[in-house]
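Is nickel (II) ion placement plausible here? Inputs below.
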Amino acid sequence: MAILTILQYPDPRLKRAGKPVDKIDDRIKKIIEDMFETHYAQENCAALAATQLAIDDAPAITVIDFSEQKNQPLCLVNPEISEPEGEEESEEGCMSVATVSVYEKVKRPARIRVKALDEQGKPLDFIAEGFMAKCIQHEVDHLNGILFIDKLSRLKRSRIDKRYKKTF
Ligand code: NI
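Reply from A.M.:
I modeled the complex. Tokens:
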């Protein structure tokens, strides 16, 4: 197992889309193991998407665990969201927007249906609400090359970019 590098904004690789996984082969299994190891090595990490890590041909995979004991791992391969309902606004942060720590409120559907495969290739189909719904939407955005700061107003975004420019 290996701890992978978490790419930091404005790394252009964060704009990559995750490649759909055809088969859970040894390469994909190794990536999932490394993703969980990387996740558990961080403080305050809820989830990671493969596209925010230094992985060539990053696959469409996210690993999630926001339990206090870090004992409720959820791996979603090729996750798809449908049937959005309601709206919730809550604060988000991101392991890839961590050079300058940024937390901003983001509006998202409150309830979603999620279809994916698990790490064994078994189909999953469930309804997510609350923090899980927010988390999965944030991760699926990563797998489409979108960061939560892409969803902010132009003004808020330019303030963040100014702070980043001072850092580099
Ligand atoms: Ni993130």
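Short version: The CA atoms of residues 6 and 120 lie 25 Å apart.
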